[in-house]
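Protein arginine N-methyltransferase PRMT10 (Marchantia polymorpha), 428 aa
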Amino acid sequence: MVVSLLPYRALRSISRSNLRTLSEKLQGIAPATGVSCAMNGHVNGGPPAAGMAPSRGVPAAGGALAKGGGVDKAADFANYFCTYAFLYHQKEMLSDRVRMDAYYRSIFRNAKHFLGKTVLDVGTGSGILAIWAAQAGARKVYAVEATVMARHARSLIAGNNVDHIVEVIEGAIEDITIPEKVDIIISEWMGYFLVRESMFDSVIYARDKWLKPTGIMYPSHARMWVAPMRTSLVEHKQQEFQHSMADWGCFLQDTSDHYNVDMSCLSNPYKEEQTKYFLQTSMWNSLYPNQIIGQPVIIKEFDCLTTTMEEVSSVRSSFKLPFHPGHSRLCGFAGWFDVHFKGSPTDPADHEVELTTAPSTDETTHWGQQVFLLHPPLNLQDGDILSCSLDITRSRDNHRLMDVKFVHQLERASGEKTPLITSPYFIE
């Protein structure tokens, strides 16, 4: 589940080449043209208006923090939940065949888990998972949806003749009540790089309050992956940053010449702002497998039956990345996730199902991968290994967005070690 109205979904209805072209255009990575010194001539865009996600130019996931550190529920609803109230957005997720096929197979190939059982669907959206649970034989399904999409879900559920089984409840899972404990909790809670959006919190809350001791989580497990990568995006983003700063220089000169005001005292804050936007904000991308230049590593694993709120609020990992021979440049890091439907230790699935968002030539998803570019790239020698630590924490201003920090060092085959480099990023 990703809160984004941007239509660069990796769907089978869109060819891979067209998708890549579309994503590049939407991310503004086409080569820049000349710099204009016109007063309003900002070249190749810049930070979007307030409330927009810098990496995509769409409404950012909400979750503003209230005074005292709690979540401002009104702001969270206005900026996050309401995005899911659009049928357009639901259609985009329902068109993701990798996503849909994985959930469909996990339910119907393991119908024994649902037959005669009670199910809680957290964040039902259109109601598709609740419908499948009912069709697989569930006795009762509670489909909880925080937005007015609940009304469309009721229509869809009635239209598919399972309204005698599925009860749609409009409200946040933390605010509603149901009359019984459930056998299964099903949800599609995953955000970019798994943890963006922090919706897993709501699933954990539901699990702790409503799941029977013998209950099953769908999905049951999740993993986060990181790999070294190559890409031409580094040069594009550097070019955009340089043009933005050149445009600022023109702006300073024009303001001084026409209005006799010296704006240069704002140059450092402006540069910091543009650096974050162009060079430190992670990017959505749909990578080819041959852009991965070393062995991917698992940085975090979650057992959805036992994971705690504390464990999902931050991710810390140390690892080493060996490189495939013949690659001379490290351009950045790629991050993705997979989830698994394994049932439970006491009631394992008959057929385990995996949903992966790894780079692929054809099985692409709307999640894509998160790309963390290095500025500048690192020069590699055969035999190099990258020693790396990674911290992912929630933004202080918005608990649904993430701050990311890579600290890395090359270990040469000769035994030499390069200086430590700290690379901060933002998943917005």
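Residues 233-259 form the longest helix (27 residues). The chain is about 25% helix and 30% strand. ok done for today
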